[in-house]
Structure formats: C-alpha cells, structure tokens
C-alpha cells in the first residue's frame, strides 16, 4: 500500500506538533517550514482550518486520502457522533494497536512489523495494517520473533497502563483489545468536529 514517505520533520513543523514521535528538528525549529516560516502569516480561512485538521489526522495515523474518506463514510453510516466514531476506527487499526502496545516506537514502525508478518491476531499472522481489530481479540508478536532487538528496545520501560482499553500480558508478550476507546481516552490532539464539517460541505 502506498504511504507518505516524505520529510516527517517538515510535516511536524507545519502542524507545530511531534505527530510522528519525538522530533529533534521540531524542538529546534518550532515554526512552520519554508522561507517565510518565521514571518507573520495571513489569517487562515475556515476551510483552511478544517483542511489542516484533516491533514493532521491523516498524517498522525498514516492513512492516505482514499482510505481516510472511506473510514469517514463508514463512520457516517453508524449511529452516534461521526467524528468520534471516525477516531475509534482509526484507533482500532492493527498498526495503531501494535503501536499502542509498545511493540514499535512509531506507527510507521508498527506498520512495518505488521507488513513483515511479525504480528498475530488471535494466533494467526495478519499482515494488513488497516485490519480492524475487534474487542476481545488478542494481538501478539509471532513466537519466533519475540527476541527481535527492535521490539525488545521499544518495550523497554514502556508504560502499558496508559491505555485502559488494552490489557497487557507480559508473560505472553501480547495485548487484548478490551473495548473501543471513549473519546476522552484517545490522547491525540485532533479536533474531529472540524473534519466532519469539512466533509459535510
């Protein structure tokens, strides 16, 4: 699947947030990229603000436009608050849960673990990053890959109690997706209502 492979620090500076993880460049240059990054900019339009929020969500979760639109339409067809349901779909992606479990330090790293067949769901290898994990399913590292250095380094010191919708089992190096997270439990700084307003135009 195609994905964004461009300069990540530039995108992080654009939004003023380390959306791809810790970023040394952002800490040194906390202003937008480009020749006029430090100069005063004109006021952004309402549409521009909404578009910016959608772009931030897409980059944060590593989803391209068509996938994102499909998820939005799926969320719109469900009863409830569309923006919250959209975020819940994004949180339920396999690559995101692998990241939340601490198997990889970034979502891009988690996506790579999934695509290289290092991750299992209920004991079966799943190599589709966009796979929607259902409550009750168990996500784990494949038995022969548990000694991988990159996974061990990522898990070292990781706090598994910060996501109440995932239960960690250290003995089996696995996590159970207990339930779909509530909006207040999702830590991402995304104003989902702006995305709904954008697509509603």
Please provide a written account of the structure:
The chain is α+β, with helices and mostly antiparallel strands. The chain has two domains: 8-90 and 188-199, Ribosomal Protein S4 Delta 41, Chain A, domain 1 (Orthogonal Bundle); 94-179, Structural Genomics Hypothetical 15.5 Kd Protein In mrcA-pckA Intergenic Region, Chain A (Roll), CATH 3.10.290. 41% of the residues lie in helices and 8% in strands. The protein is built from nine helices and five strands. The protein has helices at 8-15, 24-28, 46-61, 65-76, 82-91, 94-100, 107-115, 149-155, 192-199; strands at residues 119-121, 124-125, 138-141, 166-169, 174-177. Strands 2-1-3-5-4 form a five-stranded antiparallel beta sheet. Strand 4 (166-169) and strand 5 form a beta hairpin. Helix 6 (94-100) crosses helix 7. The longest helix is centred in the N-terminal third of the chain and has 16 residues, at 46-61. It is globular and about 50 Å long.
The CATH architecture category of the largest domain equals Orthogonal Bundle
Q: Which regions contain 5 or more consecutive residues with pLDDT less than 50? A: none
Principal-axes geometry comes out as globular
Number of domains: 2
Q: Which strand-content bin applies to the residues?
A: 5-15%
Strand order of the largest sheet: 2-1-3-5-4
Gap between N and C termini, in Å? Answer: 29 Å
Give a brief outline of the structure.
41% of the residues lie in helices and 8% in strands.
